[in-house]
Amino acid sequence: MIIDWLRAGKAPEARPRLSTRRRYAHAQPANNHSRHGCGRGNVWRYRRAELAAAMGEATRPQRPGIGVGVVVTSPAHPNCVLLGKRKGPIGAGTYQLPGGHLEFGESLAECAAREALEETALRLHNVRFASAVNSVCAAERYHYVTVLMKGEAEPGEEPRNCEPDKNEGEEWECAGLQRGSLSNHWLNIERWEWVKWDEFPPVEQLFWALRCLREQGYNPFTEDLDHLKGYTGSHQLE
Q1: pLDDT tens digits for range 27-39
Q2: Which conformational region is residue 91 in: left (phi greater than 0), alpha (psi within -120 to 50 degrees), or beta?
Q3: Distance CA 190, CA 168 (A)
Q4: Mean pLDDT score of the chain
Q5: Can you tell me the mean pLDDT for 66-87?
Q6: Which residues neighbour 134 within 8 Å (Cβ) at sequence distance 6 or greater?
Q7: Which stretches of the chain are DSSP H helices?
Q8: Interatomic CA distance for residues 163 and 169, integer angstroms
Q9: 146-182 burial by CB neighbour count: b if 16+ within 10 A, else e?
């Protein structure tokens, strides 16, 4: 068309220039709720982001979690370790060691000392490696590699249940409340307790990482690592 105009000695008619918003309006959803935050362009970007996230979740492989458990001993309680009864959607009613997730940049000893302090109010010393277990329970979609550390409580210190949402225990102790201010329901529930290693609950009553540790033949009152000889990390739990 432009060539025909040039042959006839005519100049092409100027077209009105469309703004960027109007030129690309057809590529965006029709709704325009506001000029800020929820406009057409933002809605379009949000929808693309949601789609990309959904596709990523569908293709992302599952990976195990990394946890640190702590075998806590005390000179005031010979041959005992610290246990608590677990709350929550997974493993409720089973016994566990203090512990939690390894934070970014944290050493294993730092994590063990931090978790023990946060959960039990105990300060630990002489924190060192104890064991490692690979716990898998397909039915619960649970897979954790747990590094077990051990350490001694400071002399004269006793545990308090500082995270009652994770363990059954006396919430008033860490909340600074008086005994009379709570109902009997709170005063009669279980807490962290020292349990003799040779008088542990049956393995079926132990949370998975602790159960695997017991099945390894671990002994917290020796420094050898014989329990790891031949260990292949093949704990498949039901």
Answers
A1: 444 444 444 444 5
A2: left
A3: 5
A4: 76
A5: 95
A6: 64, 144, 145, 212, 233, 234, 235
A7: 2-7, 20-23, 40-59, 108-120, 172-175, 184-187, 208-216
A8: 9
A9: bbbbbbbbeeeebbbbbbbebbbbbbbbbeeeeeeee
Structural contact between residues 133 and 212, judged by C-beta atoms closer than 8 angstroms? yes
Judge whether 195 and 202 are in contact, CB under 8 Å: no
Counted residue by residue, the chain has a size of 238
Task: Report the candidate in 96, 69, 75, 73 with the shortest Cα–Cα distance to residue 84.
Answer: 96
Region of residue 227 (phi > 0: left; psi between -120 and 50: alpha; otherwise: beta): alpha
Question: What does the pLDDT read at residue 44?
Answer: 54
The CA distance from 94 to 81, in Å, is: 15
The SS3 assignment for 16 reads coil
Instruction: Report how far residue 190's alpha carbon sits from residue 31's, in angstroms, rounded to the nearest whole number.
Output: 56
Q: Are 216 and 227 in contact (CB under 8 A)?
A: yes
Beta bridge partners of 80: 196
The Cα 236–Cα 97 span in angstroms is 20
pTM given for the model:
0.66
Only one residue has tokens 């307790």, namely 193
